[in-house]
Each structure stands twice: as C-alpha cells, then as structure tokens.
Automatic annotation (TrEMBL):
Keyword Hydrolase among record annotations: no
Residue span(s) of domain Histidine kinase/HSP90-like ATPase: 21-149
Keywords: ATP-binding, Kinase, Nucleotide-binding, Serine/threonine-protein kinase, Transferase
InterPro entries recorded: Anti-sigma-factor_SerPK (IPR050267), HATPase_C_sf (IPR036890), HATPase_dom (IPR003594)
GO molecular function: ATP binding; protein serine/threonine kinase activity
Protein name: ATP-binding protein
Length: 163
C-alpha cells in the first residue's frame, strides 16, 4: 500500500505566470510516488489548461483575482480540484467537451487546418483527453473543477483493489 500523502492547497494569482509554479508544485506533490514522467505530463497538461481557462475566460486576465488548487490522493486516484469565483463555464461547452469525439466528417484540408489553428475551443476536450474523469459544479458563485486520474497499478498497489 502506498504511503499517506497529505493534500496540498495552493492559492495562485490569476496570471499566466502562475502556470510554471503550478506545474512545479504538481511534480513536488507526486514526487514521493516516483511516477513516470508521461503520467505526470498528462495531468500537468490538463491542470495547466484548466488554470489557463480560469485566467483567460473566468477572470479575463484580472491579476487582482486568485484561484485555489487542491491536490490529493484518494482511492488510488489523483484528484486535483480548481476553485475560482470567475465566470462559470458555459453549459454548452461542458456538454460538448464531455461527449466522445464525433466521427470524422467530410471536410477539405483548408477547413481542417483552420480548425486546428484556432486558439480556443479545444481546451476542455484536451482536459478530458488527459485525465480519466472531470467533474464541474458551480454553486453560490464558486466554480469547482475536479480532475481525476487513476494512479498506475504499480504505484497504487493494493489501494486499487479498494476502489
């Protein structure tokens, strides 16, 4: 069974400059588990994309605002929860991102290239693709986005049998 790791909570300024700090803190939190870099990378990518969405869309880059990130391990899973008081994620975006990708439709190369170059609209799908589960709720002016990623069997050991 893995050793207990206490949850860690960070409060960060709503600035893109907070992203390197966030990534470093994520790596420090999971360092005792000696996880593969590829596993950490996917969670880091999802986390930084979620934080970027808070900064750019929720707070519209208002550096006077802050967001809170809590990292924890429960039931052989990594849980990373982001909380903010910015604009909520539109329901239509949540539904689109949670749905499985649609089968390829006919489109010419120019349309595909243009879609791939667009700056926004792919972030939530990327988050869903990087982790095992995503939950979102908005209550009393607080947005709460939780990223869940199962720990590898080699790390979770007998803890995975408890889930």
């Amino acid at each position: 069974m893995m050793s207990a790791i206490e949850p860690r909570t960070l409060t960060l300024c709503a600035s893109l400059n907070s992203l390197p700090v966030l990534g470093e803190q994520l790596r420090r939190f999971f360092a005792p588990l000696a996880l593969e870099e590829s596993w950490i990378f996917m969670l880091d990518l999802a986390l930084c994309e979620a934080a970027t969405n808070i900064i750019r869309h929720g707070y519209r880059q208002d550096r006077g605002k802050s967001y809170v990130v809590t990292m924890a391990i429960e039931e052989a899973c990594a849980l990373v929860t982001l909380r903010d008081s910015g604009e909520p994620i539109p329901a239509a975006l949540l539904n689109t991102a949670a749905a499985p990708p649609a089968p390829a439709q006919e489109a010419d190369d120019a349309e595909i290239a243009l879609a791939l170059l667009s700056e926004s609209g792919r972030g939530l799908r990327l988050i869903h693709d990087c982790v095992d589960d995503v939950s979102y709720r908005q209550t009393q002016g607080e947005n709460c986005l939780t990223l869940i990623k199962r720990l590898p069997a080699s790390v979770s050991g007998t803890a995975s049998a408890q889930t």
